[in-house]
């Protein structure tokens, strides 16, 4: 299976328009356009009955005490964990693309709703936990919300955009299901997968080639 994420060449920086947070000289970070990217997939295997889109960042620090703190840095040596940015499942087998901005077009404080997305069913992304302590932003974040790594992180972040062809019409998930639930439900049902990786950072101290 082949996947194209418009505007992102595999292994290269993702455009700011897809980001939840963009660099700001005065405050380190401000809200970005947060548009979901156009996804186009083909070379689909026979027997495909639905698709699932999963986007995640495997470079999120497992200990976030120093994240976005003045005078501190997030060491590149801290163990990293997956942070899910986009979960969209039960996409009909007839689909071969999702237009830009279809599942997100701007930052929505307290998050987007659950249930049906542009197609399929939205899952709960990891901003739900990350923003839980922020009274202005806390809420349930479903569907797509883009890159927003700590602005003081020494590590460049890699964003994995994936499409999975499945042999079932539905994963049977509803409500506040998360990335782990999607991965568990897909086990034994994946006929083929495709991935594009885009990089992103808000740290101006990282080399120019990484920004």
From TrEMBL:
<protein>
    <submittedName>
        <fullName>Phospholipid-binding protein</fullName>
    </submittedName>
</protein>
<dbReference type="InterPro" id="IPR008914">
    <property type="entry name" value="PEBP"/>
</dbReference>
<dbReference type="Pfam" id="PF01161">
    <property type="entry name" value="PBP"/>
</dbReference>
<dbReference type="InterPro" id="IPR005247">
    <property type="entry name" value="YbhB_YbcL/LppC-like"/>
</dbReference>
<dbReference type="InterPro" id="IPR036610">
    <property type="entry name" value="PEBP-like_sf"/>
</dbReference>
């Amino acid at each position: 299976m082949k996947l194209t994420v418009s505007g992102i060449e595999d292994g290269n920086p993702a455009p700011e328009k897809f980001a939840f947070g963009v660099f700001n000289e005065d405050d380190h970070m401000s809200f970005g356009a947060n548009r979901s990217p156009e996804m186009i997939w083909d070379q689909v295997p026979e027997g495909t009955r639905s698709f699932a889109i999963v986007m995640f960042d495997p470079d999120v620090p497992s200990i976030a005490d120093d994240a976005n703190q003045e005078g501190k840095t997030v060491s590149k040596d801290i163990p990293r964990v997956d942070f899910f940015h986009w979960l969209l499942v039960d996409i009909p087998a007839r689909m071969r693309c999702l237009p830009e901005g279809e599942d997100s077009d701007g930052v929505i404080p307290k998050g987007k709703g659950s249930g049906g997305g542009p197609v399929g069913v939205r899952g709960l992304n990891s901003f739900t936990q990350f923003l839980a302590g922020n009274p202005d932003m806390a809420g349930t974040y479903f569907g797509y919300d883009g890159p927003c790594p700590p602005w003081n992180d020494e590590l460049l972040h890699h964003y994995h955009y994936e499409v999975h062809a499945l042999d079932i019409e539905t994963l049977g998930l509803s409500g506040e299901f998360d990335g782990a639930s999607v991965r568990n439900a897909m086990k034994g049902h994946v006929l083929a997968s495709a991935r594009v990786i885009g990089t992103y950072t808000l740290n101006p101290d990282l080399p120019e080639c990484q920004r």
